[in-house]
Design goal:
2 copies of one chain form a homodimer. Chain A is mainly α and 124 residues long. Chain A folds into 2 domains: 5-66, Winged helix-like DNA-binding domain superfamily/Winged helix DNA-binding domain (Arc Repressor Mutant, subunit A); 89-124, no CATH class. Chain A has helices spanning 5-16, 22-28, 37-49, 70-85, 90-99, 105-122; strands spanning 20-21, 53-58, 61-66. In chain A, strands 1-3-2 form a 3-stranded antiparallel beta sheet. In chain A, α1 (5-16) crosses α2. Chain A is elongated. The first copy, chain A, binds a DNA duplex (30 and 30 nucleotides) through α1 and α3.
Chain lengths: 124, 124
Amino acid sequence: MKLTEAEWQIMNALWQKHPATAREVMDRLDRRVQWAYTTIKTMLTRLVEKKAVGEIKQGNTSVYDPLVSQQKARLSAFRSLLDQAFDGAMGPLVHFLAEEKQLSAKEKKELARILESEAENKGE
Amino acid sequence: MKLTEAEWQIMNALWQKHPATAREVMDRLDRRVQWAYTTIKTMLTRLVEKKAVGEIKQGNTSVYDPLVSQQKARLSAFRSLLDQAFDGAMGPLVHFLAEEKQLSAKEKKELARILESEAENKGE
DNA sequence: AAGATTTTACTACATCTGTAGAAGGCGCCA
DNA sequence: TGGCGCCTTCTACAGATGTAGTAAAATCTT
């Protein structure tokens, strides 16, 4: 389930609250996104075709519901990034994150802390 | 500097060893990628147009060199993913990673460990 | 130097993406 | 009941992307 950039915008809005009509999706779209109503309808239609979203008619109006969870979509995007840009492995990503000056030490520590504790209590 | 999927393939090959000719890039392409020589040339040309790659003629043959570092490209891809799929923040990503069963506790701990130590000695 | 091989520069073309307009249908209000 | 406003379905269309073929020029090989 590969989503395009524009599709992510729509999905993000839909995950926020659903089921939702096209108009509701529109209202919840990121502020930076200023699309015509029909553009949103087009995206929604394409997402329905891709089975990423379900559509039911409520009278004359369509109501949409995500068919893929945010978690699933995120996983797929994450894996793609890993494959494409990090040799498909966590190692290079970790290395990159560690090297990256753009991430403050604070962010890194936070990241480390959460992962640490998660690994602790969910560890197998 | 946004790279497409196909462009990543080329860049990955080019970062491996450079400068390199189109033919050398071809030889280093991921095994799964079976492109015609001219396809590679086309990609290279487009990358030159985008200023992601430099080109110099060595006699009749072009030799290419990356103009963007792998680190930079990775950062840009990482940020895009963050913006698009994780509300632009590390928080949700961390959360996702922690929740994600696909990542073993071992991987998580490893990740945590490296980040922790990095944060320690480079910390500001 | 002629043939074989390699490279280059152009052109091609189907899909996918982003973005929307047009036109027709439906319900509600005056 | 005639509009007004909102919803729907279709159609459009340019630019990006993936993937190459052609033909001509340069180079190597005997």
